[in-house]
Amino acid sequence: MSRIEAPRSEDTAATGTLVDLLLGGLPAEAVLTDPDVTASYANDMASFCPAGTPAVVVLPRTVEQVQHVMRTATALRVPVVPQGARTGLSGAANASEGCIVLSLTKMDRILEINPVDRIAVAEPGVINAVLSRAVGEHGLYYPPDPSSWEMCTIGGNIGTASGGLCCVKYGVTAEYVLGLDVVLADGRLMSTGRRTAKGVAGYDLTRLFVGSEGSLGIVVRAVLGLRPKPPEQLVLAAEFASAAAACDAVCRIMEGGHVPSLLELMDRTTVKAVNDMAQMDLPESTEALLLAAFDTTAPAADLAAVGALCEAAGATQVVPADDAAESELLLQARRLSLTALEAVKGVTMIDDVCVPRSRLAEMLEGVDRIAEKYRLTIGVVAHAGDGNTHPTVCFDPADPDESRRARESFDEIMALGLELGGTITGEHGVGVLKKEWLAREIGPVGMEMQRAVKQAFDPLNILNPGKLF
Amino acid sequence: MSRIEAPRSEDTAATGTLVDLLLGGLPAEAVLTDPDVTASYANDMASFCPAGTPAVVVLPRTVEQVQHVMRTATALRVPVVPQGARTGLSGAANASEGCIVLSLTKMDRILEINPVDRIAVAEPGVINAVLSRAVGEHGLYYPPDPSSWEMCTIGGNIGTASGGLCCVKYGVTAEYVLGLDVVLADGRLMSTGRRTAKGVAGYDLTRLFVGSEGSLGIVVRAVLGLRPKPPEQLVLAAEFASAAAACDAVCRIMEGGHVPSLLELMDRTTVKAVNDMAQMDLPESTEALLLAAFDTTAPAADLAAVGALCEAAGATQVVPADDAAESELLLQARRLSLTALEAVKGVTMIDDVCVPRSRLAEMLEGVDRIAEKYRLTIGVVAHAGDGNTHPTVCFDPADPDESRRARESFDEIMALGLELGGTITGEHGVGVLKKEWLAREIGPVGMEMQRAVKQAFDPLNILNPGKLF
To answer: Boundaries of each FAD-binding PCMH-type domain copy (chains A, B) (predicted)?
Structure first.
């Protein structure tokens, strides 16, 4: 693959040409060059991942403007880093040195909501929560709900194939993307997919773009599948005296054919962190807290059945909610988890290893061993129903030795995930954070074909170079 | 893309070399060369599509044997046509002249069924019904149910991204393929995807192979997602005095937030054909018959709600089943539809146009107009809940003028589908039958990128050449 020599930001002449050319197709207010401003676009939430300084930040409002940006980038061989709300956790939206940051946040119109066809058509800058509420007014439901849903954009969700709490029942973003309009590296516009419920005309390029972290093209419009809004969910909390028992309950629930709308696990470390921060009065003896929810027509019956399975697996206490308010209360501990873990040491590195759910207990035991080995606090929050764990390494970045141990433990957690038949990333993506690990997961032949696909779409390697590979 | 000159089957010397090389890695009984036998592998069910004569048919039983076949094919530049049960309807499995037919039917082992992880691992030659029944014994459900499910293979289902009656609730084959082992054109083995519930490591190559009609690689193993087995479904039949009223009912049902497990429509022509063949005593006044089913925990309540919507849309009669036996009886007319339409003239050409369900009425009216214009019998069976119509053109192949009109009407139906915002194929694929139409649907930029993907995986163009493009 050809390597691009990016113009250095010091290279004022080159940047001047770049900006002049961009201004040929963009209004002045859509082209930001003040270094203090552009520097603020350097990072997503993976602040410890390396990032360069953008040469310029552009904020197009139309497809034509995006095409102009890509034509300019191709002409000058300047790398382009597409960005949404920069809430990603893998550095996929981090700037590379001298790049054009292409922020899609101003393309934020919902173009259509169709309750008969159960689709929405949206621009990439629409915020997840805005779309979710808008479709909700039509009795519809857009399930993908990453933790950052109040801030993150649909385009970012598509770029990172993001998940959330709902995935155990409703799957990930990928399953809701029916068709895309994409501006290619050279500025041409391509439509993929469909607005119908089914369609198999040619290769599924739509799905190829989902999770491609802006490395194959710029999504400028998406046709999204919707579902009818389900009834409000009812939540059950179950406390266990061991993580293994909680994982056993997860297996029994899934093997028993239940379809929870949420099945989350917090380990001892996380429970303690939440207690310390928010005085939630969760019992100190709790080694694992399991939260299950059902959004069925008879959720109380489902909770009763699942509660019995939890007890059979050794739950020390089972608390089913009676109504939505109680449910919300039970979920609060889960919602506070990451903030509470952050408070332990100031900084966290959130891993995202997904294992077959039958191996979840081994994963949690392994993380405990790793925490002990590296003398670190590592809390685990898990989308347990999916086997998707977020081992969260707490460390003080001012302490170089602890930082090194944090990084090493983070890697050892991924190695463990692979050993258990899992993946290094269930929903956060590869970005910069895990690019050395991608090859370990998919092997040399897979890597070669991944690169061949990249080469087919971006022969000049100007689209988010240095990410994924 | 490079064009391959296939060795002609008359070219005995070349075929001799090919067979000798194949026998270097395959047992004698896995290499068929008797022309009478190999000729029987020339076609799938699209018998009117052109097909060549295979030079040889191979029936490998192991991954290594498939790798040997592909290495041989690459060395000699011989095209390879992968086949399952040859029940496809688009000619995607039709032999090309002088090709190796690579039949995967002997790789038919179910390698694993895991109720906790809700996955099955299967070889490509496993028959859909065999897998469905096997997972059913574990309380699990593999939804994809093409009409040919008693004969068709999982590998064929993956290659064509096939659908079925269940799709309105459970989606198509693509949604159940989590990971693949694929033998590439040059014989190397690649693993894609995962066996976990989620995973976003790198580009989604798994999904790229689904529906690729054997043109990118040979699927030799699949990890399939499963669901818990739902309760048995209960069926309702509703008769309408116009197709438009039946389509209106479909829209009301979907807009109303209902999630039927089946929502099928038969038009007047189909109802008449079934009556003529099977004396089903469906009222002659029926202009459209709608069948809806629910596999929920309280299906009678769902049927009542949907029945009321049908009546509001003008249904002349609504018949809800009381039990599984009655449900089966109501479904019989649907099951007999294609056989009954075949009986009209001896041969049918089954189209597969999918439109947004809000445009279903226009599609049906349009097909009526086209049937009249071309003086043909065209019956429509539709997966109405998905907007996926199967206008079935009845014609006598011995009548050249009628055959010409059949072909023209078939094309006009696709044009109408595109005009209504639909796709030329909802679930049958492109194959040979619709390859001239693919470009019309996806446009020149899309075609170029489709070809670039093909080029990346199959630079010598030996994998099912002449299909799709």
So the answer is: 50-229
Interface of B with A in 300-329 (CB under 8 A): none
Whole-number Å distance between alpha carbons of B414 and B425: 9
Question: Is the pLDDT at A13 greater than 90, yes or no?
Answer: no
Handedness of CA A406, A411, A414, A415 (dihedral sign): negative
* Structure confidence at residue A47 as a pLDDT band (50, 70, 90): confident
- Cα nearest neighbour of B459 on chain A: A452
**Any A CB within 8 A of B449 CB:** yes
Per this entry, what is the length of chain A? 469
pLDDT in tens, A277-305: 988 888 878 999 999 999 999 999 999 99
- Tokens 């649909």 sit on residue: A154
Spatial contact of B364 and B249, defined as CB atoms under 8 Å apart: no
For residue B160, which residues of chain A lie inside 8 Å, CB to CB?
Answer: 200
Q: How far apart are CA A242 and CA A248, in angstroms?
A: 10
Produce one character per residue of B100-133: b if its CB has 16 or more CB atoms within 10 Å, e if not. Answer: bbbbbbbbbebeebbbbbbbbbbbbbbbbebbbe
Nearest to A427 by CA among A334, A354, A342, A361: A354
Q: How far is B36 from chain A (nearest CA, A)?
A: 33
Quote the CA–CA distance of B20 and B24 in Å, as a whole number: 7
Structural tokens at position B408:
């023209």
Residue A452 near chain B (CB below 8 Å): yes
Q: How far apart are CA B204 and CA B123, in angstroms?
A: 21
Please choose, from the candidates A340, A361, A369, the residue with its C-alpha nearest in 3D space to the C-alpha of residue A290: A361
**A83: closest CA among A178, A158, A190?**
A158
- CB contact B192 to A (< 8 Å): yes
Contacts with A, B 237-256, CB within 8 Å? 251, 254-255
Q: Nearest chain B residue to A437 by CA: give it.
A: B201
Contact flag B425-A139 (C-beta cutoff 8 Å)? no
Contact in structure between A411 and A394 (CB atoms under 8 Å): no
Q: How far is CA B32 from CA A12, B20, B35, in A?
A: 69, 12, 9
Whether the CA torsion A152, A157, A160, A161 is positive or negative: it is positive
Question: What is the distance between the alpha carbons of residues A66 and B18, in angstroms, rounded to a whole number?
Answer: 52
pLDDT 10s digits, B134-190: 999 999 999 999 999 999 999 999 999 999 899 999 999 999 999 999 999 999 999
Q: ipTM score here?
A: 0.95
pLDDT per position as a tens digit, B305-352: 999 999 999 999 999 999 999 999 999 999 999 999 999 998 899 999
All structural domains of chain B, each given as residue ranges with its CATH number in brackets, are 110-228 (3.30.465.10), 234-419 (3.40.462.10)
Chain A, window 67-126: residues with a beta carbon less than 8 angstroms from a chain B beta carbon: 114-119
